[in-house]
Amino acid sequence: MELSKREKIILRAIVNHYTKDGLPVGSKLLANQLPMRVSSATIRNEMVYLESLNLINKTHSSSGRVPTIKGYRYYVDHLIQPNPINKNDEDIIQKTLNGNFSKMDEIVKKSANILSDLTHYTALTLRPEQNNVRHLKGFRLVALSNYQVMAILVTDNNEVQNQIFNISKSISGDQLEAVVRLINDKLTGMSIPDVIKKLQTEIPAEITKYIHTPSGFLSTFNDVLDKAARNQFYIGGELNLLNFTDSSNTKELKSIYSLLDKTDDVSKFIDNHDGPVSVKIGNEIRNHLFNHYSLITGTYDAGQFGKGIIAVLGPTRMPYSKVIGIVSAFREELAKKLITYYNNYYHR
Amino acid sequence: MELSKREKIILRAIVNHYTKDGLPVGSKLLANQLPMRVSSATIRNEMVYLESLNLINKTHSSSGRVPTIKGYRYYVDHLIQPNPINKNDEDIIQKTLNGNFSKMDEIVKKSANILSDLTHYTALTLRPEQNNVRHLKGFRLVALSNYQVMAILVTDNNEVQNQIFNISKSISGDQLEAVVRLINDKLTGMSIPDVIKKLQTEIPAEITKYIHTPSGFLSTFNDVLDKAARNQFYIGGELNLLNFTDSSNTKELKSIYSLLDKTDDVSKFIDNHDGPVSVKIGNEIRNHLFNHYSLITGTYDAGQFGKGIIAVLGPTRMPYSKVIGIVSAFREELAKKLITYYNNYYHR
DNA sequence: TTTAGCACTCACATAACACAAGTGCTAAGG
DNA sequence: CCTTAGCACTTGTGTTATGTGAGTGCTAAA
């Protein structure tokens, strides 16, 4: 699909206006405002052509034009003018990321908040993932009392998971201590696949020396492994959806919120990228709930931590160039911050 | 304020109708429907009196009547007819509370979800609190690696808090081990006030034997103590606010949501009770944001765990008798469940 | 004290109308 | 051949008038 120079200017102007004001854009407005001197009739003629290509639309037979999904797509791919982040926003990122964090996850979580503050949309952040198989760096059991045990698991990306579980009355303190020692000895330092294998084969047999029915133990270990394996993500500004979603449709809104609660579903549509910053518009998100939303995702490369994803969810009618600018800048700052963080605490 | 029998019947009917349909209630409707045989004119006369007492209101000069806050209050205090929970809801409570929980908090959290499902409103639950000063039952430091430490704190209500913190490069593994031993020896078993005192006096001095600037350590301990001391609460069905809040007013809605995020504020208006189940209507909640909301709170006595609170937040126009029935039943079931739970795991 | 009757009020729905913004089309001009 | 002035046409929006229905307060009679 090849557009003439003038058609491009017109389409760009339509998208710019519409994302700014949210009102259909008419030919007269553009005639008075475009860089070149043309009459509104000429613009109307061009608009007919753009509409025939399904790049723009009318809301009713005599209204101004509005971009279609395809129009936004063309705009983002060919017409967008870069809008680098402004100094002020840059400062906010710098300042906020420079807090004191005691866990990598806290930085990623905070990032979701900053990103939503900057864009006034909803932000999602996924912590970095190593692409190789994850190994178990440490596995501890701490007996808190004679009926409560905390399982602590450290993976080689330095993530820590922990979970408390209770032990039924039938186990004595001594038995427990024995099991703690047994498991610490056997599993610490192993790779996760190995841990899972052992949990199903060797370990149960060993444990029965001390405890008759060890199923409670084992299911807890699996829980913790699960938690560690799952792609956790953080959300910032979820209430911002209220700002631009047609609030009459409560049902749809609730569906979206409950979708945002499900880790698996979210990472599904946040995933697969082309390039460092990618834009998905409306039905390109492949979920009918998001037909009027767009998703700007960016990857960040946090060195030893691996690669992570940040994303902004807003209306299809969003100022793409501004949001893309923010996401671009943010992915770089976040990467820098995490690498510094890694060097400060992990590299020795 | 004394009402005649007939006035009571009329007021009750008005509240019942209005909470059911949300439409102003007119005199003709009531005339055809009340137990006694009276004309609409008579009812109108009575209504004038009820309105003079500020128990009911008109939405405009020729509309039917609507209860005022004072009217709801009178209804709840004098006119309400008990509506015990139905078998089906009862079953749901039983079944859901009978899951397998590994932490007392999980039960309290789940309760918020059940309660909101049953009422279709928003539910808040506070975990039980012992009213005496809390003691520190156990305090552990677990070195996960030579740069990460997990602090674990167990209070005498068997709550466990934990937090991970990083140690700057300047500390060696040996130093760390020494500090871990020191702190475990000195603080385990003490009461919280004592712990705090020691953290400010004795401990810093001791630690400096091993580490030059122990301020990082100490602030983390304080963080964890803080977390344990705070009244945590859980929310279920927060999105249900969308069902009955005038969704045009996005701003107010956001204020409410951000209020519900703040522990202190929430426990403030959930607190102070009269009796096992209490009802606060509109401005009685003492926060202008809730002028069109009512709050049904119930206490539950979980034996050794102490006493906790459950609450349902809905519109002033809610079916009080049904919701009160549910809260009443729930507080008892939850108490039972927690006592059983305690006996199974803690009492030996 | 109750009630039938009636005039009155007000929200709500509907239709009629003008208006503004925008369109497509046509015909003339560069 | 492209551009544009002009014009008829469409549609959303806002205003006004008008009718209807549910409800009220008041009065006068039972």
How would you briefly describe this protein structure?
Chains A, B: Belongs to the HrcA family. Two copies of one chain form a homodimer. With 348 residues, chain A is α+β, with helices and mostly antiparallel strands.
Care to describe what's here?
The structure is a homodimer of 348-residue chains. Chain A has helices spanning 5-21, 27-31, 40-52, 69-79, 87-97, 104-119, 173-187, 192-200, 202-207, 215-229, 241-244, 250-260, 263-270, 320-345; strands at residues 56-58, 65-67, 122-129, 136-143, 148-155, 160-166, 233-236, 277-281, 293-301, 307-315. Chain A has 348 residues and is α+β, with helices and mostly antiparallel strands. Chain A has a 5-stranded antiparallel beta sheet, with helices on both faces. A 3-stranded antiparallel beta sheet of chain A has the order 4-5-6. Chain A has a two-stranded antiparallel sheet with strand order 1-2. The longest helix of chain A has 26 residues, at 320-345. Chain A binds chain B through residues 102-103, 137-138, 140, 142, 144-148, 150, 152, 154, 158, 160, 162-169, 220, 239, 242-243, 247-248, 250, 253-254, 257-258, 344-346, 348, and chain B through 102-103, 137-138, 140, 142, 144-148, 150, 152, 154, 158, 160, 162-169, 220, 239, 242-243, 247-248, 250, 253-254, 257-258, 344-346, 348. The structure holds a DNA duplex (30 and 30 nucleotides). Chains A, B: One of its GO terms (biological process) is negative regulation of DNA-templated transcription. Chains A, B: It comes from Philodulcilactobacillus myokoensis.
